[in-house]
Hints:
By secondary structure, this protein is an all-alpha fold. The protein has 16 helices and no strands.
Amino acid sequence: xxxTTDIVPDxxxxxxxxxxxxxxxxxxxxxxxxxxxGTWLLYWPCAWSVALAGVAGRWDLFLWLFVGAFAMRSxxxxxxxxxxxxxxxxxxxxxxxxxxxxxxxxxxxWILIGLxxxxxxxxxxxxxxxxxxxxxxxxxxxxxxxxxxxITWWPQxxxxxxxxxxxxxxxxxxxxxxxxxxxLLWLGSISWVVGYDTLYAIQDMEDDALVxxxxxxxxxxxxxxxGIGICYIIALLSWGAAIWTVRADWLALVALLPAAxxxxxxxxxxxxxxxxxxxxLFRSNRTTGFFVFLGMLVVGLSSR
Length: 304
């Protein structure tokens, strides 16, 4: 296949990536610097867990975990592009990615992953032993994720395991042990991820069918909205259970009302035949994460 090094996607001509020196722009694309939504979605479960644990003076954890989310999400994107570079060449939306278009070598991509992992290790030094070990355990499911869409119709569930891992880290980073609230937050976040990533997968349904890639959106078809709604209900119930284990008060559950209304709006508007709308709804989950964070922070601080 002929390299398309002379073809540059529009995303590298504008915004933050466009402001970088031309030689660095493909690396910015590999890290998805033009799409920070992924960093936020990886970060929010970390922040929820710290907040529900009551913070206990470790306000710096919010910043450190955000840095870690940025580094690990960026490294994950680069790794995913290494694994998927041949598939990406066959999909219109991804054919101009730096590795698929051969504008960046695989060796350079691995070096970039190494540099990002150094940042991740710096963040680990700010965590206690329990939280650090739990963080390191996440490497195995992260490494397996890109292969899931070749194996199962539900790669979104595996992504949920990975993108929700921060819920298992934040709580022990504050309290020193892994307890039920963190596990319930994790389970709820997994369901949330399956829901919002099904929205994301709607935009690729036709291309995925052509290249044989599986997804929950393809599996659910016209019932995608119903499936997303069920996932969001499970998420809210799990988050409510996590709150209840910290503060057994019906009033505390009201903290989830803004997030519940926001998720209900997504479900009511979702259309399996409208990829552009699905993408906008997917991106709105950054706001969902913020609403859940505020609720967990109020409950956590009031329970200490």
